[in-house]
Design a protein that fits this description.
Elements (H helix, E strand, L loop, with lengths): L4 E5 L4 E5 L8 E4 L4 E5 L5 E6 L20
Antiparallel strand pairs: 1-2, 2-5, 3-4, 4-5
């Protein structure tokens, strides 16, 4: 599995998750649910950003991942 990068911006209330190389971002697409998808030039989703995200304790976050066979 590739590296997953997670960034929480407490000031901006955003949670950004990258599961692809952020340097290959080509276009962003807003889903309408306060989620922005970041895509590479081939149209593959390489990350997402959740707007208006807040946590009561920013020092601790649990993240679980599930993978499926391609």
């Amino acid at each position: 599995m590739a590296d997953v990068k997670i960034f929480y911006d407490q000031t901006g209330n955003t949670l950004t998750v990258w599961f692809g190389d952020p340097h290959t971002e080509y276009v962003c697409e807003e889903t309408g649910d306060e989620v922005i998808l970041m895509k590479d030039q081939a149209g593959r989703v390489i990350g997402f950003e959740k707007l208006n995200f807040s946590m009561s304790d920013s020092r601790q976050m649990r993240v679980a991942f599930e993978t499926i066979a391609a």
